[in-house]
């Protein structure tokens, strides 16, 4: 008989900052469940636990796994390439993209593992797949032909596997998958994550504002400086307002490197200079999470101009902190429906400027209830556990195609 507390393996997502935050939020959310509902958690970290130190104490066990190529390329510019080569070799030889992870999961006796993004998981126990977005289909210009082909092959295999449970980050992503690849045969689930705040996030934000020498009034944009995040529209909006005699300060946090275009950040900073708004744009890069949160709380509003998201972390942060949002009208942003959201036409700097003006003239105070947000966190955790229980409830490792079709009708 299976223990009443499922043993769940969670993979630390370490390739981008949004993935790190996603892992933190999921582990923290599960800790908010009543004890009788809480799973037994093993957190699997590639190479080290450095990115997940804040949540390791919430897991029952923490396992570090590492391949030979990881050891050779760790800390070099070839690290991600080495991981991809290793995954390709594992898939070709054993139909398992992460054999070290699979071996660790089996030794730890976990019952299911989340999340995986490839179809080659033959040795992983009850691997739950995850498709956060289909950006490569709708913004193909931001991907190489090889990267697009690899994603297409992997996603198609996941979607057409009737023995697979597959998680989408939003209704929008599921609808996109249906349009691009047809009706999924995999059993589909939608898991919308929530930000889980810490008590330290609600300290006086004034010292953080002073630490970074910021003005008293500003709008904040917290995104990686990646092409599709569309910082340029925000910068043009600031320039448009300056030309009308309105000075807006924009604070930007996030990594400044985009591997798809190593020169992209330099191009952006050049554009800031060309627009004549250098004194108004404050680029802080990567800063401690607690500082970022304090700066969000001290801001007039959170700006999210992105052209593509699976489920926007910064919008969930704004929700958790009770801050108003200025967002592009990308469907996922609309689906998130954060209280206090004001939308502008995606990529339209003039419309973005129009919305920003509202926050310069008024102090937006939103109704905020910690209890309501706590309920949202618990709902996120319970939704995840519903998926886990669906995976583990069958008599065998996988469900049948007919069962998958019945489950899809719920969505």
Describe this entry's structure for a reader:
The structure is a single chain. The chain has helices at 17-31, 68-73, 79-94, 99-108, 135-138, 145-159, 171-181, 206-211, 231-243, 264-275, 289-298, 313-321, 331-336, 349-361, 370-392, 401-408; strands spanning 7-11, 40-46, 61-65, 112-116, 127-131, 165-168, 187-190, 219-222, 250-253, 281-285, 302-304, 325-328, 341-344. It is α/β, with parallel strands linked by helices. Strands 3-2-1-4-5-6-7 form a seven-stranded parallel sheet, sandwiched between helices. Helix 9 links the parallel strand 8 and strand 9 (250-253). It is globular. Residues 395-411 have low confidence and may be disordered.
Write the CATH homologous superfamily of the largest domain.
Glycogen Phosphorylase B
Please list the strands of the largest sheet in the order they lie side by side: 3-2-1-4-5-6-7
**Average pLDDT:** 88
For the largest beta-sheet, the strand count, sense and barrel status come to:
7 strands, parallel
Top CATH class of the largest domain: Alpha Beta
User: What is the total number of structural domains?
Assistant: 2
Structural class: alpha/beta
Count every helix, treating DSSP H or I runs of 4 or more residues as helices: 16
Query: What is the radius of gyration?
Result: 22 Å
Low-confidence runs: 395-411
CATH topology heading of the largest domain: Rossmann fold
CATH A-level architecture of the largest domain = 3-Layer(aba) Sandwich
Note the beta-strand portion: 5-15%
The count of β-strands is 13
Element string (H = helix, E = strand): EHEEHHHEEHHEHEHEHEHEHEHEHEHHH
Separation, N- and C-terminal Cα atoms: 31 Å
Name the overall outline: globular
Helix content: 40-55%
